[in-house]
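Dear U.,

For the methods section draft, I wanted the exact inputs and outputs in one place so we can describe them consistently. I've listed the two proteins in the order they'll appear in the manuscript figures. Please don't edit the token lines directly; just add comments below if something needs changing.

First protein:
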Amino acid sequence: MATDFDPGHSIESARRVLAARLQSAGIEQPALDARLLVGAALRLDLTGMVTQAGRQLAPEEAARLEAYAQRRLAHEPVARILGAWEFWGLPFQLSEATLVPRPDTETVVELALEIFHGLTNSGRRPCIADIGTGSGAILLALLHEIPGAVGVGTDLSLTALKTARDNAAALGLADRASFVGCSYAAALRGPFDLVVSNPPYIPSAEIPKLSIEVREHDPHLALDGGNDGYDAYRALIPQATERLAPGGALIVEAGQGQARNIETLMTAAALVVDRPPKADLAGIPRAVSARKMPP
């Protein structure tokens, strides 16, 4: 394979060359992507890249880096190339059936934790459900933060469920997390103190307009929210309501401009919206919540 990364290149030189190639191709964050790809190709963390910056690439390292470069230049996301990504400071393996966990979704975790710490102690072990769990990112982040809790994640994809189970094991949470294949919460019984979800919410007609990184590499099952983007909410909100413990809360991720309509669906399901949506770092109302009031 022809490569810009001859074995004579130093690690630092290779990083600069790759960043320039990515920038010329219009890739966002070319310097960050180059650092991540060089580190992965050479099996080095950031410290190793700094301390070995002047070391020359071995032939197999140059070939591996070029293969990664070609994939990124074809707009394959770095997370897909690496097969893993960080969420809530924790490492998550990915598969073709899982979304790449995004910083926006950490807003759901933040709001869930805020609500949980305000719940009245029921005297039983806290229980969490994650609907459409994918890689297990939301559920496992919450279990990591709430040591006494147990949880269950659901997904239609058996491949996603295997990925989530593997992540639970790798994070030392397998004894507190279980995973089940079903549509939304259909196979769950409850009661749950928290039900969380990042459901598909992109209107079907908008999917072809998404970036190449998303529309060609994220699973459409986890993106497509139907004609208006609300199909998943209409299905999961009533199911979650039935399975919530009195005083428990439902927290969902929302797309831009969707928060108010989601609150309306929650109210229609007899949940009480008792706080405003939590905004992400861009100021977009991203996490929407409501509670099931005690009788």
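Second protein (the one for the lower panel):
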Amino acid sequence: MAIACACSALPAVAACPDYTTAANPPAFSGPAKKTFSKFGNTILAGLYKPWHMAHDTIVKAGTAATITGKFDYDAVLHKDLEGERVHAYLYGTGMSGWQYVGNFVTDSDGKVNVPLGVRPVGDYVVRFVVEGDLSGTTGYLSVVDAGRDAVLFDIDGTLTINDFEAYADYVGVKTATAYYYAPQVVNAYREKGYQVIFLTARPYWVTKDGLEWLDIQKVGRWHYHSNPYGDGPIPPDTQKFKTDYVRHLRDVVGLNIVRAYGNATTDIAAYADGGIAKANTYIIGPNAGASGTQPIHGEYGSHLSFVVTPTPVASCRR
């Protein structure tokens, strides 16, 4: 279906990420609450807390976008919400208020795929609301000019001091300890106009905790991409998953990934296979400097000075 765009025209020049607009949406008024279509879902929502999430999406300017929402209940069971209506709303760059996108029925996996149309360059927040209990979640859409400068970060063992993927330990993800000055490094890139990408091997069902961790660290929560495959604590084919997404960002979206951060040998291999030079690959932890990568030793204190001072601003600000 065609989707109207309630937004003003934007200048035809390369734009930096709009980290402000989508993070500060206006007052929101959602749908009226209605009874769940299935009685079993009424019981489900009454017994367990919602654990919904959305897969952030990033597209090149002029490309139609779609965002996927996933709806389930309970942090352990992750029981899918099937056959229920979800409403979607959009707000972002150049818009004066929330736009109603439409309502969609969850499939057998508890998912809805929401077409957002072709949007001007900018950043947008998508709010999903379950009609049966008014629970919800948010995701983000970024529409970028080809060639936008970006910096890529793994999370576990790279920004946090523990590698949850390696230990299959997702208890307490949202309160995991950050390396000293890791959040400041991320924010320094944001302030210089770079598109920040979080690429994590965490399975999609811990996205809620992952985003809360970024909030706790006072780091903007998008663009966040977790592994959509596998139901266990360690999704399969971590290296391939990361390689494929790096290639997508570079070859399809057109991002210029100027630096990538990681800690594991799978990060090193995935970034290399994705076309990121070892000279621009920064590794912390036991594998620091391995295979010709750039080492970060101990924590990010010294590296922060390198990011803040010698690193130029992103090309969108020159």
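Candidate sentences for the figure legend, describing the second protein: The helical segments are 39-47, 164-167, 182-191, 207-216, 238-253, 265-273, 301-308. The radius of gyration is 20 Å.

Thanks,
Y.
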